[in-house]
Design a protein that fits this description.
The chain is of the alpha/beta class and 143 residues long. The chain contains 5 helices and 5 strands, in the order E-H-E-H-E-H-E-H-E-H. A 5-stranded parallel sheet has the order 2-1-3-4-5, with helices on both faces. The termini are far apart.
């Protein structure tokens, strides 16, 4: 008898509801055959993001580097600095020139805006696999 795959929780942070929707639509409910379903926690503010992460159960955090007033790059850095078991983070950046700050943020993956659905789905699925296997995430190269 096969054990059913567990449901994963992906946090999506952006002050822009269109970005949050684009992430949800790109990744979908089942980003890969070998993974369980995905539930989403959407956060539009820094306070909501911090509350959700503090509550636990987040498997991957996708953060908009262009969010205002608190950008996803700074929040990714804060989470990595402050949490011992920080969920893997993926930041969305609008400019290739932001690659250096994405590296500074300690993000585990970086994807460009506008969202490229196949690339984003593959990146999120990879981070979910690492989280599920309790493996350390190797920092991904910036865009």
């Amino acid at each position: 008898m096969t054990t059913p795959a567990r449901t994963h929780t992906v946090l999506v942070y952006s002050d822009d509801p269109k970005v949050r929707e684009a992430v949800r639509l790109a990744v979908g409910r089942r980003p890969a055959d070998d993974l369980g379903l995905v539930d989403y926690v959407e956060c539009a503010t820094e306070a909501a993001l911090l509350k959700a992460v503090d509550a636990g159960g987040i498997d991957v955090a996708v953060m908009d580097g262009e969010a205002r007033p608190a950008g996803g790059l700074g929040l990714a850095k804060q989470l990595k600095d402050e949490l011992q078991d920080c969920p893997p983070t993926l930041v969305l950046v609008a400019r290739k020139d932001d690659a250096w700050i994405a590296k500074w943020s300690l993000a585990d993956a970086v994807q460009p805006l506008p969202i490229e659905p196949f690339a984003l789905t593959a990146a999120v699925a990879g981070l979910l696999r690492h989280r599920e296997a309790a493996l350390p995430v190797r920092r991904a190269a910036a865009v």
